[in-house]
Amino acid sequence: MFVDGFVIAVPTANKEKFVEQANSIDTVFMELGALRILECWGEDVPDGKLTDFKRAVQATADETVVFSWIEWPDKAARDAGMAKLHDMMQTDERFDPAKSPPCFDGKRMIFAGFQPVVRLEK
After folding, report:
1. How far, CA to CA in Å, does 47 sit from each of 26, 35, 61, 65, 81?
2. In a domain, 33, yes or no
3. What are phi and psi of 97, to 5 degrees?
4. Is residue 7 part of a domain?
5. Dihedral (C-alpha) 102, 103, 107, 113: value to the nearest 10 degrees?
6. Is the N or the C terminus of the chain less surrounded, counting Cβ atoms within 10 Å?
7. Which of 9, 39, 13, 23 is nearest to 107 (CA)?
8. Is residue 111, in this structure, part of any structural domain at all?
9. What is the CATH number of the domain that holds 71?
10. How do the pLDDT tens digits run along the chain, 122 residues long?
11. What is the pTM of this model?
């Protein structure tokens, strides 16, 4: 398995728009081979003493932190999916900013790919 993780700050007033956009864009990741996607709206995001989720994305008082991840079968599937995604972004209308402008500042997004080392499930 391989996991892509994301943290963003979304204007709280844009929650419904975010959910709509996530539902649209996340279907693309599923088409490209993702196994599972979770988009999690911050509800209990405490302030830290040294760092925290809010500071990581420079969230303002009128924004909510969103923590998301995409699970892939393995890194090769993720890399292939992301390569196809870059091509699709030029032609697929789901990525047309004129039709659906982003509802958050993507420049403050943090993201990375991770190899799981512990996995517990029920």
Report:
1. 29, 32, 12, 12, 35
2. yes
3. -65, -20
4. no
5. -80
6. C
7. 9
8. no
9. 3.30.70.100
10. 999 999 999 999 999 999 999 999 999 999 999 999 999 999 999 999 999 999 999 999 999 999 999 999 999 999 999 999 998 888 888 888 888 888 999 999 999 999 999 999 99
11. 0.91
Q: Per the structure block, which two tokens stand in for 108?
A: 């403050």
Q: Which residue has the tokens 């972004």?
A: 89
Give the domain extent around 25. Answer: 12-100
DSSP run (H or E) holding 97: none
SS3 103: coil
The total number of structural domains in the chain stands at 1
Work out the angle at residue 26's Cα, subtended by the Cα atoms of residues 23 and 32, and round it to the nearest 5 degrees. 145
Residue 77, domain member (yes or no): yes
Cβ neighbours of 111 (radius 10 Å): 13
Q: Which residues face 3 on adjacent strands? A: 71, 114
- How far, in Å, CA of 64 to CA of 87, rounded? 31
Triad 1, 51, 63: Cα angle to 5°: 85
Between CA 99 and CA 80 the distance in angstroms is 27
- Closest of 3, 22, 33 to residue 94, by C-alpha: 22
